[in-house]
């Protein structure tokens, strides 16, 4: 037996789902599509039942991929005599009943959940639940998912769910809904609350733009604070205090050198205990003794005592850089970003941001809701690419996916850019992110002018501001963070392995010489930067980290960071975009990426001093 949760977007389905299923849930794509849905399990009278959170839909006549999947899942449920919990926003009963009546006409077993029941009192709405249940002919249960009110009754009444074909004329549906509203609902006057006034101010340009700037500035300040705190107080102490001594001992067991050692541990670094500086180009003249001390011969100081150590960013071993970068440098920022994104989603701010930027986004060939894939892309380009399915036309999806892949760096890459050029302050960071923003705008305008077709108007519901439900937010945060680890760590390890093998076989040197006219002549970068460009296809963050030991100038670091962001998406994003856009459109997007990266990188090399 299965239970489907169906309803309009923003009616609290995810919170109801969280209340029913607890912690163990799975997010997956519907077969043959990239539309994501969530499933979990609950106990009903000692029976284990699967619960599916169906993509939100306004109608059973689909207008998007997500709605097509919702209709297909309903068809399968009907064939298997499953139950649909129709979750209705009690504060918007008239609009929500449109889907309810369509579900009843399908003849499937339905129970109606009148969610957000607490907000009806705040908005001056009174609903006669018994009368509504009598008219619809199926159970109706008022709930407040955030507080848990009514959830127990909803579960108890699940066996009462029934199919009650509600006959009406398709063309007269809204008239029928009007009659139901007249019989069951009464609205009284009430004064606007602070959240009502804030919600209105959020979508007016005069007040909404300052609010958006404050929200975004606060969001990224919090992300940086949480990320840096986790790195400084948790992850770096673990790697430096616990993991590094183990790796140094393991290095000794492997003979402190050789092919296997370079693959697993990477390069060793020597720290002069007399001058307190790292030593380059050394020759070891003695065996390692207690305290990881060894005598080394340098080109300038002769034989000096040095301490053997590992630089987790530069060593490039599978067990050193391969683990440190995704876990200690990137994961803290990913966690912080998805925490804030989930909060903005569940509080009701993101739809308002979409409405606010709608006019501007139309100049780029998109509508306001395309800001959501862009913001998701800041966390990880993979969910950002998947989120382009919320856009209605193929033209919009192409523009949004191309702009995101070219000019939206993921949080992992942003973290590495901060580590690389952040030491130069605003002089280093502003050119990187300023250039990417200008490219995002100009390229959007160009594609809007050149690609045939139009951008449809925005159509979205703006929910009231709500305090996010912590349990649902935590579940979403865990699923997204786990998804990053599942996607990132294997590619980082693969990238580090390939770099070491390529270096051992002198492949990097060959490719560097081959592309020297472009890398040195156009971009002003050394041939060694080719390795980073190659690995950028696997992981952009690792690629940027590979620039650190090259001793590049601020100008070169800025050019390299911009080019690495623009020239190609990582392989995981590339695979998703091929499925989303098709091979032909992905080849077009790839050509745009490469040409844009070379033009912008070359321009920066000429303009900057």
Could you list some keywords that capture this structure?
609 residues, iron transport, single chain, 57% helix, magnesium
Shape estimate = elongated
Q: Tell me the major beta sheet.
A: 7 strands, mixed
First-last Cα distance: 68 Å
Quaternary state of the chains: single chain
Give the topology, please.
Elements: E1 2-7, H1 13-21, E2 25-29, E3 36-44, E4 47-53, H2 65-79, E5 83-89, H3 93-105, E6 109-115, H4 117-122, E7 125-127, H5 129-136, E8 140-142, H6 151-156, H7 173-184, E9 185-187, H8 194-203, H9 205-253, H10 259-264, E10 269-272, E11 277-279, E12 283-284, E13 293-298, E14 302-309, H11 321-347, H12 349-356, H13 358-362, H14 371-379, H15 381-386, H16 394-407, H17 411-421, H18 426-450, H19 470-504, H20 507-514, H21 516-522, H22 530-535, H23 540-545, H24 554-566, H25 571-581, H26 583-607
Parallel strand pairs: 1-4, 1-5, 5-6, 6-8
Antiparallel strand pairs: 2-3, 3-4, 7-9, 10-11, 10-14, 12-13, 13-14
Helix pairs in contact: 3-7, 9-11, 11-14, 11-17, 11-19, 16-18, 16-25, 16-26, 17-24, 18-24, 24-26, 25-26
Please summarize what this structure is.
Probable transporter of a GTP-driven Fe(2+) uptake system. 57% of the residues lie in helices and 12% in strands.
Explain the overall architecture.
The protein contains 26 helices and 14 strands. It is an alpha/beta fold and 609 residues long. Among the domains are: 2-190, P-loop containing nucleotide triphosphate hydrolases (Rossmann fold); 382-607, no CATH class. A hairpin with a 6-residue loop joins strand 2 and strand 3 (36-44). Helix 24 (554-566) packs antiparallel against helix 26. The longest helix is centred in the middle third of the chain and has 49 residues, at 205-253. The relative contact order is 0.08.
């Amino acid at each position: 037996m299965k239970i489907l949760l169906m309803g309009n977007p923003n009616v609290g389905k995810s919170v109801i789902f969280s209340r029913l299923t607890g912690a163990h849930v799975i997010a997956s794509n519907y077969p043959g599509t990239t539309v994501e849905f969530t499933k979990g399990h609950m106990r009903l009278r000692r029976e284990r039942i699967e619960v599916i959170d169906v993509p939100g839909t306004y109608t059973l006549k689909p207008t998007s991929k997500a709605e097509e999947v919702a209709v297909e899942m309903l068809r399968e449920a009907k064939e298997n005599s499953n139950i649909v919990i129709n979750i209705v926003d009690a504060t918007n009963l008239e609009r929500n009943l449109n889907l309810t009546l369509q579900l009843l006409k399908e003849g499937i077993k339905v129970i109606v959940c009148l969610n957000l029941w607490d907000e009806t009192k705040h908005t001056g709405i009174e609903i006669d639940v018994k009368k509504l249940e009598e008219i619809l002919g199926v159970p109706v249960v008022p709930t407040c998912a955030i507080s848990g009110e009514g959830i127990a009754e909803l579960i108890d009444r699940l066996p009462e769910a029934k199919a009650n074909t509600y006959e009406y004329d398709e063309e007269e549906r809204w008239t029928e809904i009007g009659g139901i509203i007249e019989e069951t609902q009464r609205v009284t006057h009430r004064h606007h609350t602070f959240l009502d006034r804030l919600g209105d101010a959020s979508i007016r340009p005069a007040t909404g733009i300052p609010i958006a700037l404050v929200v975004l500035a606060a969001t990224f300040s919090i992300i940086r604070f949480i990320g840096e705190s986790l790195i400084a107080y948790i992850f770096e102490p673990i790697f430096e205090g616990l993991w590094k001594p183990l790796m140094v001992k393991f290095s000794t067991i492997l003979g402190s050198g050789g092919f296997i050692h370079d693959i697993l541990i990477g390069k060793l670094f020597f720290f002069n205990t007399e001058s307190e500086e790292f030593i380059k180009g050394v020759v070891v003249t003695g065996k390692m003794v207690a305290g990881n001390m060894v005598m080394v011969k340098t080109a300038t100081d002769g034989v000096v005592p040095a301490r053997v150590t590992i630089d987790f960013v530069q060593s490039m071993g599978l067990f050193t850089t391969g683990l440190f970068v995704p876990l200690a440098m990137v994961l803290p920022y990913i966690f912080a970003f998805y925490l804030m994104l989930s909060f903005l989603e569940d509080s009701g701010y993101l739809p308002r941001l979409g409405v606010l930027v709608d006019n501007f986004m139309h100049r780029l060939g998109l509508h306001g809701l395309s800001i959501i894939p862009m913001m998701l892309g800041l966390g990880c380009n993979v969910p950002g690419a998947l989120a382009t399915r919320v856009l209605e036309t193929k033209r919009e999806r192409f523009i949004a996916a191309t702009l995101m892949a070219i000019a939206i760096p993921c949080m992992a890459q942003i973290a590495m850019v901060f580590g690389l050029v952040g030491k130069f302050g605003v002089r280093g960071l502003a050119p990187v992110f300023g250039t990417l923003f200008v490219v995002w705008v100009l390229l959007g305008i160009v594609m809007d002018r050149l690609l045939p077709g139009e951008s449809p108007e925005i159509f979205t519901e703006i929910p009231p501001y709500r305090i996010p439900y912590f349990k649902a937010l935590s579940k979403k945060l865990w699923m997204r963070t786990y998804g990053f680890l599942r996607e990132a760590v294997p590619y980082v390890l693969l990238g580090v392995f390939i770099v070491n093998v390529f270096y051992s076989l002198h492949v990097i040197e060959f490719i560097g010489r081959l592309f020297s006219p472009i890398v040195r002549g156009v971009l002003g970068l050394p041939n060694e930067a080719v390795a980073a460009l190659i690995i950028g296809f696997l992981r952009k963050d690792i690629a940027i980290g590979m620039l650190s030991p090259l001793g590049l100038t601020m100008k070169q670091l800025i050019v390299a960071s911009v080019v690495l962001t623009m020239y190609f998406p990582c392989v995981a994003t590339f695979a998703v975009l091929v499925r989303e856009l098709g091979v032909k459109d992905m080849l077009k997007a790839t050509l745009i990426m490469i040409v844009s990266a070379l033009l912008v990188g070359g321009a920066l090399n000429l303009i900057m001093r």
